[in-house]
What we know:
By secondary structure, this protein is mostly beta strands.
Amino acid sequence: xAMFVFPCVSLxxxxxxxxxxxxxxxxxxxxxxxxxxSFGYMGIANVGASSGATCAIATDVPTEGFTGGSSYxxxxxxxxxxxQKLTCSSGxxxxxxxxxxxxxxxxxxxxxxxxxxxxxxxxxxxxxxxAGGSIDEMWYAEEVSLSCAATTTSTSTSSxxxxxxxxxxxxxxxxxxxxxxxxxxxxxxxATITVPENAAGIAVYAKGAKTLFLYSLGMAIYSWxx
Length: 226
């Protein structure tokens, strides 16, 4: 009789150790296994009543968000060596949205590739950590949500009306008191500034820098940022 009992016990332990990795459960399905939820596999009636260090998800995605198509590290940790199931709502982890560890670990790192990015792009992760047998624990990791990094578009205005050129050179001369003068370059460009008293020289407007320089004897003696 004993010859038959031990293989059965061995089989039961093997089946127990196969969860949660053997579960067919995608990101949406994982919502059913939050803290305290009914579990029912391996003789474990419920998922642990709390979340935290017992099963946790961390990422190296910057605080400003992910970039579409880029790869990032997702790490699942637990205080006890447990099997893991990790799912994502978008993007993929090694070509899938659902991955598992077959062995019990306290930390496992996965590579996640972000989805294409637009203003509404986001991604979330859910995980379970657990094992049966002598452990008989199942824990839910608090969901982690990420968003696409915003694309910043900057717009600036200035008195730059220089068509198709990087600099324009003109001449300006100040008087004994500061005045408002007009600099006109050979490319039909006009900018209005306040001229320091007794200033005279060559005025050069650098389009790329949006800065007007007043040169005297080969040196920039004044500048104005537009």
